[in-house]
Amino acid sequence: MPLLQVENLVKTYPGVRAVDGIGFTVAEGSCFGLLGPNGAGKTTTLEILEGITGADSGHVLYRGAPRDDSYRAVVGIQFQHTALQDFQTVHEALRLFASFYPRQRPMSELVQLCNLGELLDRDTRALSGGQRQRLLLAIALVNDPDLVFLDEPTTGLDPQSRRNFWRLIEGVKQEGKTVLLTTHYMEEASVLCDEIAVIDRGRIIERGAPQRLLAQHFPRALVRVPLSALPDPGRLPPGFEVRGGDAVAATDDIDQALAQLRQLQVALDELAISTPTLDDLFLKLTGHGLRES
Amino acid sequence: MSLKRILAVVAARNREFYRDKAGLGWNIVMPAIMVLGFAFIFSSPDESLYKVGVLGSVTGDTAPAFLRTPHIQFIAQDDEVGAIDKLRHHRIDLLLDLRAMPRYWVNELSARGFVAERLLWQSQTNAPQAPQRETVSGRAVRYVDWVVPGVLAMNVMFSSLWGVGWVIVRYRKNGVLRRLRATPLSAGEFLVAQIISRLLVVSSVTVLVFAGTNALLDFPMRGSYLTLGLVFLAGAIALVSLGLTVSARVRSEELADGLLNLISWPMMILSGVWFSLEGTNIWAQRIAELLPLTHMVDAARRVMLDGAGLQEVAFDIGILLVLGVVLLTLSARAFRWQ
Ligand SMILES: Nc1ncnc2c1ncn2[C@@H]1O[C@H](COP(=O)(O)OP(=O)(O)O)[C@@H](O)[C@H]1O
Ligand SMILES: [Mg+2]
Fold first, then answer.
1. What is the pTM of this model?
2. pLDDT tens across B78-105, in order?
3. Which CATH number fits domain B46-136: 2.130.10.10, 3.30.70.270, 3.40.190.10, 3.40.50.300?
4. Confidence check on the interface: ipTM exceeds 0.85, yes or no
5. Distance, CA A11 to ligand 1 centroid (Å)?
6. How far is the alpha carbon of A118 from chain B, nearest alpha carbon, in Å?
7. Which residues are near ligand 1 (CB < 6 Å)?
8. Three-class secondary structure of residue B95 per DSSP
9. In whole angstroms, what is the distance from residue B20 CA to residue B15 CA?
């Protein structure tokens, strides 16, 4: 039985259908990612699953049954935007949240897991972005939850802090907890998630394991030159198509693609050859980039 | 309801209160400054209109010339004991008795009474018989003595209204409530914790301000501290509940601030904190009777100045508690986390 079963969720705000028929299942112990650009409906979906927001229609089953009052005690939540009360230290904030739950994780474990040892007496307002996210993760874990929701946990962090945070989430996964996270970083999803759902405008447009999705949609490599490098932009080399501002060929035979370009006397200074990423997948599926829109 | 959760929230809110040094200073120093400041500024309030109570009625030409003095408001009194109390409490400046032998009472500690008495003498220069002079005996009060219970009660009001009302709206706006909502903490537990925390704050601040200003002003305290404490506690419960009701759904700090001002300023003016409503518009007096601050000020004054016991202020305490329970129920129903 899946840990979480989500069927046909719909949520409308005045003027916008934020969630438009979303459904998926999450297996116990897995990490499930909701992937999509800003405004796609990730936060709204997550908040419905957290029990913070009610859906207009649809069902959510936890361990096969509708959620009841005890649900709140077995999930851990890290919001995209969270404020903590003023004038408290990291340690006091953890103690406060721990006191709300019947089941608590030993403070020392939590501190070690989230790497908070040196910050315990620091005022929560004096934390850096990465430190703050670690505290918020620890707060999400105070009750030793079975299911953890993380809404864009690394947005706004520098690359170094982001990688550090990934390591913490790996640690949480290794403890066998089920993780449901949202992100608009494709790399994050490929590193952390066992399964992803790509969301755009409130709908799931593709679902599956990241590597399987890539293999399914793309050959091994992408060969890319800017359109401006073509002598005659109206005339694409065979096998190439326009995507964004580039001429792109998805191919298993890189030599042949290069030969095509040379034949048309395309300048190769800005040639790029890459393995496809989830960014490319998103562009292919929706026709627009992840960071735009 | 879990006591453990409630106490944890109380402790967190208390920490937030006493670690905020600027706010703390404001909460303790401000009321003290107000009591002291008003004691000196208003120690002889300068109003053009004097209020003279009159026992017994006289009409037509037989009325003494004094009753025609301009800028004096004459207010009919029907109860001699009550009227003397009003004089003692500076609610009237002079009391004239025209029922038999003309006589009058004056409060020798009242500056306005002093002037009103001179006006009376002046109007008597060719009267056949000078009225007999009486002074209110023993327990005359200074204006500052009269105003202190009012200022203490007013401070309880401000602290109760803003201490929960404004704070909850701030929590709602900045997302603290949203985060708490995602835990098993219930709305009831959260609200009870806010109330307990604020009652602790109001009690300690009131004790501090009372002790500090009393050391400087030496105002009378004729009743029991326990009774006075119960009056202020009941008042705080009513006003904290009022603050909760205002903040049950509001999301904007500006709107909350505006609403709280809208409630507190008329109360401050109509509840007789600064001047007596004696002889003013009857509607203003009717409305005043409905305001929780009026009952708190009246009861506190009677305890401090007249030594009223618990039974004598039980009615006011009862009204405040009933109001508190009603508003609390209302606000718990209306409360929204976001
Ligand atoms: N409380 C709300 N009221 C009105 N519209 C909202 C609200 N929350 C979200 N929306 C709208 O719903 C859509 C989805 O938002 P959201 O779920 O926050 O997307 P994401 O998290 O993927 O960026 C957006 O168009 C957003 O403007
Ligand atoms: Mg979001």
1. 0.80
2. 888 889 888 888 888 899 988 877 889 9
3. 3.40.190.10
4. no
5. 10
6. 22
7. A 13, 16, 18, 36, 38-44
8. strand
9. 8
